[in-house]
Specification:
This protein is α/β, with parallel strands linked by helices and 590 residues long. The chain has three domains: 243 residues, Aminohydrolase, N-terminal nucleophile (Ntn) domain (Glutamine Phosphoribosylpyrophosphate, subunit 1, domain 1, 4-Layer Sandwich), CATH 3.60.20.10; 172 residues, Glucose-6-phosphate isomerase like protein, domain 1 (Rossmann fold, 3-Layer(aba) Sandwich); 161 residues, Glucose-6-phosphate isomerase like protein, domain 1 (Rossmann fold). It is 33% helix and 23% strand. It is built from 17 helices and 24 strands. Strands 3-2-4-1-10-9-11-14 form an eight-stranded antiparallel sheet, with helices on one face. The chain has a six-stranded antiparallel sheet with strand order 5-6-7-8-12-13, with helices on one face. Strands 16-15-17-18-19 form a five-stranded parallel sheet, sandwiched between helices. Helix 16 links the parallel strand 22 and strand 23. Helix 7 runs antiparallel to helix 13. It is globular. It starts with a strand and ends in an 18-residue tail after the last helix. Bound molecules: fructose -6-phosphate.
C-alpha cells in the first residue's frame, strides 16, 4: 500500500517526480523518497508527509534526468528514514522503489547476508536491489537481472529499478500491485495510479500481472516474464489534471462531496451498459455480495433492495471473512464484488476463489485495476479519481450502480424514474452546509455518537458512523433503530448525540417511536427527515430533505449530509480529513 513513480525526461526530473508522487499521497504518507541518476545514484528521503520532508530536505534539489520516487504506508518496519524507499544495493549502483509485500523476504535476506550483502533497513523491499546487484555481477544487464530477481520473489510487487551502469532506462515489473505507464513526447512515466501522471500526459498503458517494462526516454517496451515483447493498447484517459486537484476546495473530501451531483449524472449514464451486462448473466437463484468497509455498507443496501424488490436470497460477506463462507457457492450464485479502488487485497483474494465456481461481477471505480481484470463482468462507477481517504462520491456511485442493477434485473421503470430525480435532490442536500456546520460545532467535543436507522437506512446509519470515526476519531456506532432497547440503550445518557435517520415510508412510525425512547433518556437528537414532517418540527437539530425522498431512495441522498457532518466535525477538531491517521486509500494487504 504505497505509491511509486518513475520518470525519464530530457530535463531535470525531480520537480516533475515530486509533483507526481504528491498525487499518490493518498496511498500512504508515512515517508517519502526520491533517487535520481547522474554519474552516481542520488537519494533523498525522510519520514513524514511529503510536505514535511520537503520542507526539511528539499526533495526537488537533486540533479538527474531520470529518477524514481516512493510514498510509503509501512508494512514491514517502522516509518523511519532508514525504512523509507528508495533502497540501494551494497555498491550503491542500483536503486529500487516497491509497492507490495515480499512474503519470502526473510529467507532471501538470510541467503543474501550469507553471500556478504549488508542490509540497512528492516523492509522486505531491500532484498530486491541486493538480488539485482547479485545478478548484474553475474553478467546480466538490468533487465535480465530484474527478471531473475522477480522470479525469486513470492508475494506482490509493483517496482521500478535504476542502475548507474545503464543510465538511460528504468526497469519496472508488476504482480498483484497496480502499475501503469504514461507515454508522452517529452518523456515516459511509470506510476501506481493515473493521477500521478495526469499533469504530463493522458496516454496510458495498463500493465498486467507478470509483465515487465523497459522505459526509455523515447521508447516503452512491455514484455512478458520470458522477456518477449507484448503489444499493449495505449488508452486515452478522459480525466483532466484539474479533476485530480482540489479545485479550490480546502480539502479533497469537501471537493469530492461537492462533486456528487455530477457523479450522479455520470453514473446514471452507465444505465445502458448495465442493462447489457444484466442480459448476459447466466441463470442464478442466489446473490452474494463481497466487500470491505464503506463498500460493504453499499452492499448491505443492495441486499435490502434485492430481497425486497426481487425476492432473490441475498447475503453480504465481508471480504476478510470470505473463506469461512465460500463452500456454499455454486454455479447458480452470482457473486458481486464492490470496491472503489479495485485493489483491496481481501476482495481480490475472494474474487479469485469465487470465480472458480460462480459467475462474478465487479463494481469498481478505478479503470484497469486488478479486480476489473479478474471478474467475468465489470460495471464502472464513474466517480472519477477520489483522493480523500474517506470514501464519499465513490460510495454514492456504488449505490447508483446497485440501484440500476436492480432496476434492470426487475425490468421495472419506477426505480429508474426515482433515480432521475437524484441530481436535483443532491443539489438541495448540499445547501444544508451552514446548518451542518452549526451542528458540528455543537457536538465536536462529544466522546460518543450513535446513528440509528431502519431497513434501507440501517446501512446508512453504519456508514454515517464509520465516516465520523474515520475522520474525527470520535467513537461512533450505527444500529438498526429497533435494536437499541436490546442492549445499547444502556449507553444512552444525558447529552449523547444520536443521529436519527427518519425518511418518510413504511418504516417511519417504528423508527419515530424508537427515537422517542432514546429522547426520553436525555439524548441530543439530530434528525434527518422530510421537510413535510410536522412531528419533528420541535426538534432543535434537524436536517430536512425534499419530501419526494422516501425511505428507498433516502440512502442515496441523506448520506451526502452525513458525509458533510463528519467533514465539518473533523474541521472543528482540526484534523486533516483527507489523511486520517493509520488509514490509507487502497488496502493492498490482507
Ligand atoms: C472508508 C473507506 C474504506 C473502504 C474499504 C474498501 O471511507 O473508504 O472503508 O471502503 O477499505 O475499499 P475498496 O472500496 O477500495 O475496496
Amino acid at each position: 500500500m504505497c505509491g511509486i513513480v518513475g520518470c525519464i525526461l530530457n530535463k531535470e526530473v525531480a520537480p516533475t517526480i515530486i509533483e507526481s508522487i504528491k498525487k499518490l499521497e493518498y496511498r500512504g504518507y508515512d515517508s517519502v523518497g526520491i533517487a535520481t541518476l547522474t554519474d552516481k545514484i542520488n537519494v533523498k528521503k525522510g519520514s513524514g508527509k511529503i510536505k514535511e520532508v520537503d520542507d526539511q530536505i528539499h526533495l526537488t534539489e537533486i540533479d538527474g534526468n531520470i529518477g524514481i520516487a516512493h510514498v510509503r504506508w509501512a508494512t514491514h518496519g517502522n516509518p523511519t528514514k532508514e525504512n523509507a524507499h528508495p533502497h540501494n544495493s551494497c555498491d550503491n549502483k542500483i536503486s529500487v522503489v516497491h509497492n507490495g509485500i515480499i512474503e519470502n523476504y526473510k529467507e532471501l535476506r538470510e541467503e543474501l547476508e550469507k553471500e556478504g550483502h549488508t542490509f540497512k533497513s528492516e523492509t522486505d523491499t531491500e532484498v530486491i536491489p541486493h538480488l539485482i546487484e547479485k545478478y548484474t555481477k553475474q553478467g546480466n544487464d538490468l533487465l535480465h537481472a530484474t527478471q531473475k530477481t522477480i522470479n525469486k520473489l513470492i508475494g506482490s510487487y509493483a517496482l521500478a529499478a535504476i542502475s548507474i551502469d545503464e543510465p538511460d532506462k528504468i526497469i519496472g515489473a508488476r504482480k498483484e500491485s497496480p502499475l501503469i505507464v504514461g507515454v508522452s513526447e517529452d518523456g515516459n512515466f511509470l506510476a501506481s495510479d493515473v493521477p500521478a501522471i495526469l499533469n504530463e500526459t493522458r496516454q496510458v498503458i495498463y500493465l498486467d500481472d507478470n509483465e515487465i517494462i523497459q522505459l526509455e526516454k523515447d521508447n516503452v517496451t512491455v514484455m512478458n516474464n520470458q522477456l518477449e515483447p507484448i503489444k499493449k493498447e495505449v488508452v486515452t484517459i478522459d480525466w483532466n489534471p484539474e479533476m485530480a486537484e482540489k479545485g479550490g476546495y480546502p480539502h479533497f473530501m469537501l471537493k469530492e462531496i461537492n462533486e456528487e451531483p455530477q457523479v450522479i449524472k455520470d453514473t446514471l449514464s452507465e444505465s445502458p451498459k448495465i442493462k447489457e451486462i444484466v442480459s448476459k448473466f447466466k441463470n442464478f437463484n442466489r446473490i452474494c455480495f463481497v466487500a470491505c468497509g464503506t463498500s460493504y455498507h453499499a452492499s448491505l443496501i443492495g441486499e435490502y433492495l434485492i430481497e425486497t424488490q426481487l425476492h432473490i436470497p441475498t447475503e453480504v460477506i465481508l471480504a476478510s471473512e470470505f473463506e469461512y463462507f465460500q463452500n456454499t457457492l455454486d454455479d447458480h450464485t452470482l457473486v458481486i464484488f464492490i470496491t472503489q479502488s479495485g485493489e483491496t487485497a481481501d476482495t481480490l483474494k475472494a474474487l479469485k476463489t469465487a470465480k472458480k465456481v460462480s459467475e462474478t461481477l465487479a463494481i469498481v471505480n478505478v479503470v484497469g485495476s486488478s479486480i476489473t481484470r479478474e471478474a467475468d463482468h465489470v460495471i464502472y462507477t464513474r466517480a472519477g479519481p477520489e483522493i480523500g481517504v474517506a470514501a464519499t462520491k465513490t460510495y454514492l456511485s456504488q449505490l447508483i450502480c446497485i440501484y440500476l442493477l436492480v432496476a434492470h434485473l426487475s425490468d421495472d421503470t419506477w426505480l429508474i424514474d426515482k433515480l432521475s430525480k437524484l441530481h436535483d435532490y443532491s443539489l438541495n442536500s448540499l445547501k444544508h452546509e451552514e446548518n451542518i456546520k452549526n451542528i458540528a460545532k455543537k457536538y465536536k467535543s462529544a466522546s460518543d455518537f450513535f446513528y440509528i436507522g431502519r431497513g434501507f437506512n440501517y446501512p446508512t446509519a453504519l456508514e454515517g458512523a464509520l465516516k465520523l470515526k474515520e475522520i474525527t476519531y470520535i467513537h461512533a456506532e450505527g444500529y438498526p433503530s429497533g435494536e437499541l432497547k436490546h442492549g445499547p440503550l444502556a449507553l444512552i445518557d444525558e447529552g449523547i448525540p444520536v443521529v436519527g435517520i427518519l425518511p418518510p415510508g413504511p418504516s417511519y412510525p417504528k423508527t419515530y417511536n424508537n427515537l422517542q425512547e432514546i429522547k426520553a433518556r436525555g439524548a441530543n437528537m439530530i434528525i434527518l427527515g422530510s421537510e413535510e414532517d410536522t412531528q419533528i418540527n420541535q426538534i432543535e437539530n434537524k436536517i430536512l430533505f425534499n419530501p419526494g425522498i422516501d425511505e428507498i431512495i433516502a440512502p442515496l441522498i441523506y448520506i451526502i449530509d452525513l458525509q458533510l457532518l463528519s467533514y465539518y466535525t473533523s474541521i472543528e477538531k482540526k484534523i486533516d480529513p483527507d489523511k486520517p491517521k493509520n488509514l490509507a486509500k487502497s488496502v493492498t494487504v490482507v
